[in-house]
Fold each of these.
Amino acid sequence: MANAAADPVGGVGDMGLHSRIGRGAGIVAVIAILSGAVTQPAWAAAATTRDLVVLDHERWLDTLKGTVKNYSKRSARDVTVIVKFLDKKKRALGTQRVTVGDLRSGDQASWSLAIGEKHRAAAQYQFETHAIWE
């Protein structure tokens, strides 16, 4: 009972506890927001900033296949996908390009690229898209 009288209700000791709980809740909220952003697919984030997006890709032996989509409100002519081939240490091995054709707004198309001999050691890929806009 003597301890209860020494620490008044709502005193400094109580405020310290509340501020620590508030900070802890804030940190948990930031972590939840960041983890939600990380689990979002890479192409979904790119779609808001780019008009042509490579949605997916897969490698079959010496062939790289993928899908590109036009998120713009305009039509795209002569759509081209440029593939940068990277080794395990993310060093560039070279680039190749494939012409997809024309894509209207909202359309998507598949593409296929025969991987050149010097790019076959690639472990990763980076994509760049180009088009003539109407």
Note: The chain has a mean pLDDT of 78.
Amino acid sequence: MNRTVALALGLIVVFALTVGVLLVVMPGPHKSTDYLVIGAIATLLCLLLLFLALIKTAKRPVGKPDSE
């Protein structure tokens, strides 16, 4: 599986789980501002995870093999 596809699918799953958990945790009835906060928190978490994943799994540059 391509690295980009796997990362995108993983972040979509994390976003959906975060929204689901926050909808259960936040007391109802929900107003439009509650949905705004839930979406903002889920987006912030996904962007943070994306940033960390891209830093930790940086692609190695293709270099010439050492000739001795």
Note: The chain has a mean pLDDT of 86.
Amino acid sequence: MSYRDSRDTALSAFFSEDNGRREPEKQVALNASSGGIGPLPVITTLFAAPLNVVSTSIDTRDFRGSTNNLLNFTSIVNLPLGISVTLNFEITRSINSGAPVNVGATYTFSTLVDVLEAEAFSFQFLDADVVPGFYTYSVQLSTNSIIDITPGASIGNAVLSVLAVKE
């Protein structure tokens, strides 16, 4: 076997034949956005609607088959002296500009602060076996979040990334 033959054989593991052309078997897309929210007032009752922290979109319309979409959310929660917070984060997903629906669990950040501080908060979610489409994912502060005693909490440096990989 010549060098060229061995290289072509090795590459054939990553490509498939389609109408005489070589097409990659794995399709991958990545997108990310940044955002934040705050300073937030004292919130001791439910508020009318969730507050958007960050959103990003991913286009898988050209993918052949379903995808696994891995979401990664990272942020810094800035907290003033003497604050008590329970921040509940939810993920919404819309497809092709349709109505958003909640996906995944509720992710909770909770603390009582004695000194001025900033804490990192992050989570991941796998949206598995998703049909091709144009998706918008949003991380929102849920209506049942509580900020007690002192106003001024904020969520900064929030980044939401989506990695879509064809199954």
Note: Confidence is low (pLDDT under 50) at residues 1-15.
